[in-house]
Write a structure and sequence with these properties.
The complex is a heterodimer of chains A (301) and B (167).
Chain A (H helix, E strand, L loop, with lengths): L6 E3 L4 H8 L6 E4 L5 H6 L7 E4 L9 E4 L2 E5 L4 H5 L4 H4 L1 H6 L6 H4 L4 H7 L5 H8 L3 E6 L2 E6 H4 E3 L2 E2 L6 E8 L6 E7 L9 E9 L5 E9 L6 E2 L1 H5 L8 H14 L10 H23 L14
Parallel strand pairs in A: 1-3, 2-3
Antiparallel strand pairs in A: 4-5, 5-10, 6-7, 6-10, 8-9, 11-12, 12-13, 13-14
Helix pairs in contact in A: 11-12
Chain B lengths: L1 E6 L2 E6 L6 H8 L18 E4 L2 E4 L12 E3 L12 H8 L9 H14 L5 H8 L10 H10 L19
Parallel strand pairs in B: 1-5
Antiparallel strand pairs in B: 1-2, 3-4, 3-5
Classes of the chains: A alpha+beta (301), B alpha+beta (167).
């Protein structure tokens, strides 16, 4: 369908954009790449009064990498992430997951801020954000605030963002060299939304036991989330086939997927277990410096 | 609202509603009906056009968002009546049947090969996974794109598979 009627503004500065979002007539929506919002409009799932196009705003399209971590402006596109070689060491889970994010044409326009605000439960970036303890920076005419990714997503397509607020950036804590990690997902068509996916990481102490284990899942709940029950199976343990198996089993038991058109709840639950097991095994193999290159179609380019 | 941009090298100025998608602006306002509208929600890829060198879905882009930008549509690929090397490769390999998806296949592959003339068969398949074709089964399309790489400065075609290769 065609989008419903709306008014349109393309402010030149962030304060102007925030003023438009805070207008007393309300019902204004920010527009960046439009790769989530445009389908929502086409399906008439939303009919905002005003679209505030962010295309003229300067300085929000940069990826900054320093000792404190990674900061991505809200207008950073998937294409920018895909082409930033620094992220392979500064944020390896994102570098690995980016090959799964949408299709070629959509990666040229889709943005970090748009994906976070849209909050699809199967989207990769929200899952990486939760799994990597990211912080989301938000601005409005009332001031700015930072929200932990774990507290940002409230449910499917629902976040803590207020109608007058705009995501300006996302920050990730520094990633130490030697940290073990892997991302896995399954989608019917590469680039489509995942039926389920997982991002895992852990550090090893001097005795070779896991600590800080993080297991995040997407597509297996109404929002991206960590699975504490599965993480607890690994912290303080030597990571081996047995502990990985226990963690995968706990992960499958801890998620609460819904039946939908694409997969049954039982299938998704089983899939989470399989993907968590694969990801942990691959993360472990990475710590041993062995040739871990499991050749995944579409990621080699 | 009035919007001005370039299409296939020509400056255009046209009046649109804010909600007018780029795909409809091209087809209805500018009568460039080579850009096909399939799903209108960003799944099928038929409406792909090139904006400042980057392939985008014109159904997920508002016309007002491309103010001042430079657009290439499928009409901009050929030089007059002479097919571009990519188009000629599609013809040689029978890379189309009904032809509905073809404008999106051509614009996507053109943007890809302009950027990555050495794209591998896997890379080509990955990129074209965003374009649905229900007729061909994709094999001749991938062969055509592989074959066209040489015209973009990529390798001469010797890596194609199956029928039609290397003609």
């Amino acid at each position: 369908m065609k989008p419903p009627q709306f008014e349109y503004a393309a402010p030149a500065t962030l304060p102007e954009a925030l003023a438009l979002l805070a207008h007393p007539d309300g019902d204004a929506k920010p527009l960046a790449g439009g790769q989530s919002l445009m389908p929502v409009l086409a399906f008439r799932l939303a009919s905002p009064r005003l679209l505030v196009d962010l295309r003229l705003l300067q300085g929000m399209d940069r990826i900054e990498v320093d000792a404190s971590g990674v900061r991505m402006g809200a207008k950073v596109r998937w294409r920018d992430i895909e082409r930033d070689a620094r992220l392979k060491t500064a944020l390896p889970l994102m570098a690995e997951a980016i090959g799964h994010v949408a299709h070629y044409q959509i990666r040229n326009r889709g943005t970090v801020g748009g994906s976070l605000a849209h909050a699809d439960p199967a989207a990769e970036l929200p899952g990486i954000a939760v799994a990597c303890d990211a912080t989301i920076e938000i601005a409005s005419t009332r001031g700015s605030r930072s929200v932990a990714a774990a507290d940002f997503f409230e449910g499917a397509l629902t976040t803590v963002l207020q109608p007058d607020e705009l995501i300006t950036a996302i920050t990730f804590p520094a990633w130490p060299a030697g940290r073990a990690s892997a991302f896995e997902e399954l989608a019917r068509r590469h680039g489509d939304f995942a039926m389920a996916g997982t991002a895992v990481w852990f550090d090893l102490d001097t005795a070779g036991r896991a600590m800080n284990t993080h297991i995040g899942v997407i597509g297996a709940s109404d929002r991206p989330r960590r699975l504490a029950a599965a993480e607890a199976k690994l912290d303080g343990q030597v990571i081996d086939a047995q502990s990985i198996g226990e963690a995968a089993c706990a992960a499958a038991g801890a998620c609460d997927p819904a039946d939908d058109l694409h997969a049954s709840a039982a299938y998704r639950r089983n899939l989470v277990g399989v993907l968590v097991e694969r990801a942990l095994a691959r993360a472990l193999a990475g710590t041993k410096g062995s040739g871990t290159a499991i050749n995944r179609s579409g990621e080699s380019h | 609202m009035e919007v001005s941009f370039k299409v296939n090298g020509h400056a255009v100025k046209t009046e649109v509603e804010p909600r007018t998608t780029l795909s409809l602006c091209l087809r209805d306002n500018l009568k460039l009906t080579g850009t096909h509208v399939g799903c209108e929600h960003g799944v099928c890829g038929a409406c792909t056009v090139i904006v400042d060198g980057e392939a985008v879905r014109s159904c997920l882009t508002l016309a007002v968002q491309v103010e001042g930008r430079s657009i290439t549509t499928v009409e901009g690929l050929a030089d007059g009546d002479a097919l571009s090397p990519l188009q000629a490769a599609f013809r040689r390999h029978n890379a189309l049947q009904c032809g509905f998806c073809t404008p999106g296949m051509l614009t996507t592959a053109h943007a890809l090969l302009t950027d990555e003339p050495h794209a591998s068969a896997d890379r080509i398949r990955e990129v074209l996974s965003g374009n649905l074709c229900r007729c061909t089964g994709y094999l001749p399309i991938v062969e055509a794109v592989l074959d066209a790489r040489a015209a973009y400065g990529g390798p001469a075609s010797d890596a194609t598979t199956g029928h039609g290769a290397g003609r």
